Amino acid sequence: MKEFLQHVYWGNSNRTYLLVTGGILLGWLTIRLLKKFILSILKKLSLHSNGKYKLNDILVNVTSRFIFPFLYITIAYYGIEQLNITSKVDQYISLAFAFVTTYFFIRIIIHFVYAIIVHFMEFKGEPPERIRQLSGLLVIINIVIWSIGLLMLISNLGYDITTIITGLGIGGIAIALAAQNILGDVFSYFVIFFDKPFQIGDSVTINGKSGEVEKIGIKTSHIRSVTGELLIMPNAEIVKSTIQNFQDMQQRRITFVIRIPEDTALLQLRKIPDIIRQIIEATPNTTFDRSHLSGLGETSIQFETVYHIKTSSYMDYMNAQQHIYFEILKELKQENIQLSFLNFPTIPVITPKN
Description:
This protein is α+β, with helices and mostly antiparallel strands and 354 residues long. Helices cover 59% and strands 19% of the residues. It is elongated and about 125 Å long.
């Protein structure tokens, strides 16, 4: 047994290998026990917070996913460092550990940044659709943090990063000049995100194209049109356009015109505004605004009517319009008034929420 322990392989005795292996296993066992104890404490603190503050939830997630795995690797690294190994192998192991350390350090920062941003948006009462828009912003945040982390790693390895930063600056200018359209879309994404002209799930009309917003990406936004196809629009073009957002619309303002033959009796003409008013007032979810004789033509007399639908539902609007349409036809026929022209152009008006 003694001879076995003293036998040397690759510059280390079996006794040294056993001690290092035992030390690593003991360290892992200690971390495993501490993990259960620490996580149980953090979870209890998280439950006591009543969901108002999610810092403890973030700590539980970061500790479980990143800190403890990194501690396992760290113990293994320092255990291996106790062995008598060649300088070249030691250099490779140290380099690998530096990469692992940088990786976990960056992942922890990104996770904290993302969690804090989401928590802040939830605290401000932002809807889930708004939080889903973070995907594009997080890509940019990831690129920035990873770039800084890798530069720090290169600096810690003993390299001069001044030349690298200078080269990146010159290269960045060249890339910016070559990719002006892409950068324009990226900056437009920030305009959409912070200015909030629309959000995921909103019904919008952009450049005459109507549909529901499905995705807001860094370069393009996806809109599912009312006819079913997917419209992919560059963000820069969207920002330059007039955007009609119907999501916050509380009521619709409807204007319609009817034309009566010019030889209709005056007594009959005077009845028309009151007939239309009664029909609209008897229609659910509608508010009568006005109805007037608005024009005299060579062959017809024009009456213009305005009313409001007290809901943003398109189906309610169509039902009310259809009902009014049929009732006007019926009442005018009963009054023996001929109809020369009937039209229902719709003018939606956005009314802010109270």
